[in-house]
Design a protein that fits this description.
This protein is α+β, with helices and mostly antiparallel strands. The chain has three helices and 22 strands. The radius of gyration is 47 Å and the shape is elongated. Helix 2 packs antiparallel against helix 3 (about 150-180). It is about 30% helix and about 35% strand.
Length: about 375
C-alpha cells in the first residue's frame, strides 16, 4: 500500500513539472513572436513620396493699408476780418464753388470806395488831355497854326494821364480782388469734416485766430488706398493690377481696388515701396482714415518647384527636403519662397523628377534606409 502511494506522488510531481515547463516555454515563444512582429512592422513602415515637378504657385499675402481722401484741404482766411456768417457745418456735402462762409472788413469797403473815386478822377483827366491833343492835332493840319513843340507836349500829357489811369485801374482791381476773399468758396466737391470757427470770430493770415483752419474739406466719393509693399513683393504689383481689401467695420465684404501710382523707390526706413490704389466710394460706405487689410495676389514663376508644406523640414540645422535615392534618405538643404495654404516654393540642389518624402520629419535620419516607399503624384 505504501509502495502504491509513493508511485502516485512521483507521477503527480512529474506532471506538475511538465505543466510548469510547458507554460514557461509558451510565454517565451509569445514574447519572441511579439518582438519579431514589432520589428517586422517597423521595418515595413510605409513612407509616402512624390516626384518633383515644376509648376506655378498662386497665393496671396495680407498687408495692412490706409484709406485716405483723394483730395483734402485745410481752408484758411486770406485777409484779416470778422466772420459774418457760416453757410455750412461739419458733415455738410458741398459742391465746387459753393459759398462756405462770409466775412466782413469795413476798412476794405472804404479802400474800395476811395479807389473807385481816384479811378473816375484819372479817367476824367485822361479824357481831357486826349481831347486837347486831338484838337491840336487837327488844327496843326493848317500850316503855321500850332507849333510842333505844343503838339509834342500835348501828346506826352495824354500818355502820362493814360499811365496814371492804368495804375488807378490796377489799384482798384487789387482792392476788389482782396475784397472777394471775404467770401470763402469750396475748391472742389466733398464733405466738411471739421469746423474751427464761429460767427463773430476774428480770423486772418497771421496772429490770433489763424492757428486752426476755417474748415477741413475732404473728397469722399473717391479714396486712395495707400500700402507699403515690402521689397520682396514689389515685383508682383504693376500699374492697373487688381487687388481686394477688407475693413473692420464691414468684415464680410470685399472691396476692389486698382493700382494707380507706384513710388518707384523704396522707403529707406521701411525698405518698402509706397503704392496707391484708387477706390470708387460712391455709396460712401468707406471713410477716410480707415485701416484696410489688403490681399495682394502672388503669381510665381512657372519654372519654380512647389511642394507640399509638409515636405519641408525646418530643423535647428536649417531647412531641408528629404530626397529618396536608392531607397535611402538624403537630406537636401533648400531655401523657401512664396507660400500658399498648402504649398511652398523651394530653391536648392533639386531637379525635376527627384522623389521627395511627402511628410518630412527628423525621425527619418539622413542616409537612413527606406525599405517601403510608396510613390504617388501630388
Amino acid at each position: 500500500m505504501r509502495h502504491i502511494h509513493q508511485i502516485a506522488m512521483t507521477v503527480l510531481v512529474a506532471g506538475a513539472a511538465t505543466v510548469l515547463q510547458s507554460c514557461g516555454s509558451s510565454r517565451a515563444e509569445e514574447e519572441e513572436s511579439k518582438k519579431a512582429a514589432a520589428e517586422a512592422s517597423a521595418g515595413a513602415a510605409v513612407v509616402d513620396a512624390f516626384p518633383l515637378k515644376k509648376e506655378q504657385l498662386v497665393s496671396n499675402i495680407q498687408i495692412p493699408g490706409e484709406l485716405i481722401a483723394y483730395q483734402q484741404v485745410d481752408i484758411y482766411a486770406k485777409v484779416s476780418s470778422f466772420v459774418k456768417k457760416l453757410h455750412v457745418d461739419v458733415g455738410s456735402e458741398v459742391r465746387e464753388g459753393q459759398l462756405l462762409a462770409t466775412m466782413e472788413a469795413p476798412e476794405l469797403t472804404s479802400q474800395l470806395v476811395t479807389s473807385e473815386s481816384r479811378l473816375k478822377s484819372f479817367e476824367a483827366i485822361y479824357q481831357a488831355s486826349k481831347a486837347n491833343y486831338e484838337r491840336l492835332l487837327e488844327t496843326s493840319k493848317t500850316p503855321g497854326t500850332v507849333s510842333q513843340n505844343d503838339l509834342d507836349v500835348a501828346l506826352a500829357k495824354q500818355r502820362s494821364d493814360l499811365a496814371q489811369l492804368d495804375a488807378a485801374r490796377s489799384a482798384s482791381r487789387e482792392i476788389t480782388d482782396t475784397r472777394n476773399y471775404l467770401e470763402i468758396r469750396a475748391p472742389f466737391s466733398g464733405i466738411i469734416s471739421a469746423r474751427n470757427v464761429s460767427t463773430g470770430a476774428y480770423v486772418g493770415p497771421s496772429g490770433k485766430g489763424s492757428e486752426f483752419p476755417f474748415f477741413t474739406l475732404v473728397e469722399q466719393r473717391k479714396l486712395r488706398l495707400v500700402v507699403s509693399v515690402p521689397e520682396q513683393y514689389t515685383s508682383y504689383l504693376k500699374n492697373q493690377s487688381q487687388v481686394t481689401f477688407k475693413v473692420k467695420s464691414l468684415p464680410n465684404q470685399n472691396f476692389p481696388a486698382k493700382v494707380s501710382r507706384l513710388a518707384g523707390a523704396l522707403d529707406v526706413r521701411l525698405r518698402s515701396q509706397r503704392t496707391e490704389m484708387d477706390v470708387i466710394n460712391s455709396d460712401r460706405k468707406l471713410l477716410p482714415g480707415m485701416i484696410a487689410e489688403v490681399s495682394i495676389p502672388l503669381s510665381g514663376d512657372v519654372n519654380t518647384f512647389a511642394v507640399p508644406r509638409t515636405a519641408v523640414l525646418n530643423s535647428t540645422q536649417g531647412t531641408y527636403v528629404i530626397k529618396v535615392v536608392d531607397k535611402r534618405a538624403v537630406w537636401v538643404p533648400v531655401k523657401t519662397g512664396s507660400s500658399s495654404t498648402e504649398k511652398t516654393e523651394i530653391f536648392g540642389d533639386v531637379k525635376e523628377g527627384d522623389v521627395l518624402v511627402k511628410v518630412a520629419n527628423e525621425e527619418i535620419r539622413d542616409n537612413s534606409d527606406l525599405k517601403n516607399v510608396k510613390q504617388a503624384a501630388i
